[in-house]
From TrEMBL:
Occurrences of domain N-acetyltransferase (ranges): 11-179
Full protein name: N-acetyltransferase
PROSITE patterns recorded: GNAT
SUPFAM superfamilies named among the record's database cross-references: Acyl-CoA N-acyltransferases (Nat) (SSF55729)
PANTHER family: GNAT FAMILY, PUTATIVE (AFU_ORTHOLOGUE AFUA_3G00765)-RELATED-RELATED, N-ACETYLTRANSFERASE DOMAIN-CONTAINING PROTEIN
One Pfam short name: Acetyltransf_3
Coiled-coil stretches: none
Signal sequence, start to end: none
Length: 186
């Protein structure tokens, strides 16, 4: 499969390259970035995560893609669509993102999430796109709401991969239907 590339006004969402690992590790090992996601990752964990995304791209044609800023080609995070693996999003299209802290507050995540959801509805047959985050992750919840996603009251769950004693255990689920997305963008 050809290397994936989705361009927005300021960003490029693309397939992962092995040389992306050091820049992505700088993001995944930053305690500020990881405060609402879990413990900072080791280099080996980041490398495995990138390899997992490469595998998903090769196997199913989509993943949380490398997110590059167009103005300087800097890798600033990831955003895209995977098949969910936990809670109410198992086997559903799940939008997700992670970004370098110095890039927060500039609208990049919303821009990338919008493009990813557009891509999902244009390329996947599913009737909705979902997103999950820890209950206290207000930044991600705000992005979900900007995308027109609504919180699913029945979608709250304890994440099975999070330590039961962690304040990140409780997760919330948001979704947007194809019909609602189309009516927003029409």
């Amino acid at each position: 499969m050809a290397d994936f590339c989705l361009k927005t006004e300021r960003l490029v969402l693309r397939g992962w390259r092995d040389e992306d690992v050091p820049a992505f590790h700088a993001i995944c090992s930053d305690p500020t970035v990881m405060a609402t996601l879990g413990a900072p990752l080791s280099y080996e964990q980041t490398e495995a995560l990138v390899a997992r995304m490469q595998g998903l791209q090769a196997d199913v044609g989509h993943c949380f893609w490398a997110m590059e800023r167009r103005e300087d080609a800097r890798l600033i995070g990831w955003c895209g669509i995977i098949r969910g693996s936990v809670g109410p999003v198992v086997d559903q299209p799940e939008a997700g993102w992670r970004m370098a802290a110095d890039c927060w507050g500039k609208g990049y995540t919303s821009e990338a999430a919008r493009a990813s959801i557009d891509w999902a509805f244009a390329n996947l047959p599913d009737p909705a796109v979902y997103a999950i985050t820890s209950d206290g992750n207000q930044r991600s919840r705000a992005v979900m709401e900007r995308m027109g996603m609504t919180r699913l009251a029945e979608g709250d769950f304890d994440h099975p991969k999070v330590d039961p004693a962690s304040p990140l255990l409780r997760h919330v689920t948001y979704s947007v239907t194809r019909e609602d997305w189309d009516s927003r963008t029409a």
